[in-house]
């Protein structure tokens, strides 16, 4: 891959992040159809969508197999961002889809720690309720 190809790829990844940040599902799907990797290490699309509470983008990226526990440079996972910014439905979706509640970011804080630090009581309640719901479903299945 030449330098020009690298620039084009970087621009497309930037476009992907913009689509995730601004809740543009059509642009996101178009970029994915053009071959932009949703799962590349460079792509933080799920982080952007989770941080901004864009459920449609979050659901689409999860359906496409994006690593739900991928870490960014600060070791934040998408769940850290959703908790910090108070996006209840996104938090529930991430947990139900397998997001880890025990990942530590660079500051040794879990997603729950971020919710507590930001005084997001509705997030703390959502985490506890969702985990309890999952435990009940697992218990009744065995």
Strand proportion, as a percent range, falls in under 5%
Per the CATH scheme, the topology name is Serine Threonine Protein Phosphatase 5, Tetratricopeptide repeat
Specify Rg, calculated over alpha carbons: 16 Å
Q: What are the secondary-structure elements, in order, as H or E?
A: HHHHHHHH
- Share of helix, binned: 55-70%
Question: Can you tell me the CATH architecture?
Answer: Alpha Horseshoe
| Sequence stretches where pLDDT stays below 50 over 5 or more residues | none
Number of strands: 0
**By helix and strand content, what is the structural category?**
mainly alpha
Total discrete domains: 1
Q: How would you characterize the largest beta sheet?
A: none
**What is the distance, rounded to the nearest whole angstrom, between the alpha carbons of the first and last residues?**
51 Å
* The top level CATH class name: Mainly Alpha
CATH superfamily: Ankyrin repeat-containing domain
Shape, per Cα inertia axes? globular
Mean pLDDT: 91
> Oligomeric status of the shown chains?
single chain
> What is the count of helical runs?
8
Pfam family, one: Ank_2
Protein name: Ankyrin repeat-containing protein P16F5.05c isoform X2
Keywords: ANK repeat, Repeat
ANK repeats: 41-73, 74-106
Explained architecture:
The chain has a single domain, classed as Alpha Horseshoe (Serine Threonine Protein Phosphatase 5, Tetratricopeptide repeat), CATH 1.25.40.20. The model has no long low-confidence stretch (mean pLDDT 91). The chain is globular and about 50 Å long. Helix content is 63%, strand content 0%. With 142 residues, the chain is mainly α. It starts with a helix and ends with a helix.
